[in-house]
Amino acid sequence: MGKLTLSKTDVAGRQLVVAVHLYFNWGDEVVIHTLTAAARNVLCNLCAYRGVSHPLLLDKLLADLVKPEHHREFRNKFRESENFFKHADRDPEGVISFNPDITDYMLLEAVEAFTVLTGERVPEFHAYRGWWLLHHQNCLSEAPEEFLRSLNGIVYDAKQRTQYFSDIILAIKQQG
User: Fold this and answer.
1) Collapsed DSSP state (helix, strand, coil) of residue 3
2) pTM, whole model, 2 decimals?
């Protein structure tokens, strides 16, 4: 295989596509989280560098909702699992209690950051965004009206995410 020329967004996009596929196919939660965190960090750094913001980015949420003196504590807690998975210099014998649900939010943040930065409509990201909205409507003060109309009574429970992904990717390919 020859050399690849890749931008930061190329790499992050590839990591996210794989993370989404693993997510919908019940892949290893630690691997999904690690890929998502790596991509998220690159994309959020690029957003900061380019002066791009989005309401779902952690830095925007911190600025809007968390007192400045608690930003570091909040970030550390948010990134606790990813740091544990990547490093052994501080706690080589450490053990962690990992809640994979945090990955749902981190993955959404990364997908949104990628979309804001590139303007690309990646089918896997569109599918994930829809799944997240379907299963986290209660987290939003206002669910997107267009999305709710598009559901038209469609229901996928949490155990049906592989079927949802298959159905939505097929629908996206048929559209475009």
Assistant:
1) coil
2) 0.86
pLDDT in tens, 60-95: 777 777 788 888 887 788 788 888 898 888 889 999
Provide, for the chain, the percentages of residues in helix, strand and coil under a 3-state DSSP scheme, each rounded to the nearest 5. Answer: 70, 0, 30
Residues 111, 129 contacting (CB under 8 angstroms): yes
Q: Report d(CA 172, CA 142) in Å as an integer.
A: 25
Question: Average pLDDT for residues 92-107, to the nearest whole number?
Answer: 92
Does residue 8 contact residue 42 with C-beta atoms inside 8 Å? yes
Model confidence band, residue 154 (pLDDT cutoffs 50, 70, 90):
confident
- The CA distance from 158 to 164, in Å, is 10
Q: Which region, left, alpha or beta, applies to residue 51 given φ > 0 means left and ψ of -120 to 50 means alpha?
A: left
pLDDT in tens, 27-38: 999 999 999 999
| Residue 14 contacts residue 84 (beta carbons within 8 Å) | no
Which token pair is 153?
A: 């009574």
For the CA atoms of 37, 112, 108, 169, the dihedral, rounded to the nearest 10 degrees, stands at -110
